[in-house]
Amino acid sequence: MNFLQDKVFLEKRSKQQHYFFSVLEEGLTLSCDAVIECLNYNTVNEIRCRLLYNYGMVLYDCYNIEIIKKILRDYSLLDTSARGSVQLYISLTEVSEAFDRHNDNSDVLFWQSIGSTKWIIEEGTETFTYILKPNDFIYVPKSMYHTVIPLTPRVGVSFGLDYSPVHSSVG
Question: Distance between CA 114 and CA 129 in Å, rounded?
Fold first, then answer.
């Protein structure tokens, strides 16, 4: 994805700062059919799924959707020593549970695919608020606190760069 080579993004990433990409890659879509196929695939193959209050859910390890594989592959090129991961966040109602204020143990690139969410990012002493709409992306560095609030029924894709050792060496 060309936007991952954006100079401002790369500079912010190197400084461990968040970055908001507004509506990218015209034609980039995640269909409802693909989301349902992923839910079916994960269920049939007993891949972990977390159900949330008021018809929300998280699907883990969603590697079976072609566009997701491409974005994850490109995102993972930013640090080949990190293991890439991907989760789908689904809210079937605007009052579906989401994750309250939290931080992640991974750098996160989030793609708002369907619907909209409100993101509150805490960077140092400053707080930033964004409304993400379809095809918006936001980058949040590891350990940075943020809150996500569904504003409509929605689907979002979270790409992680998990900094656990990928290779072990014997000395």
Answer: 19
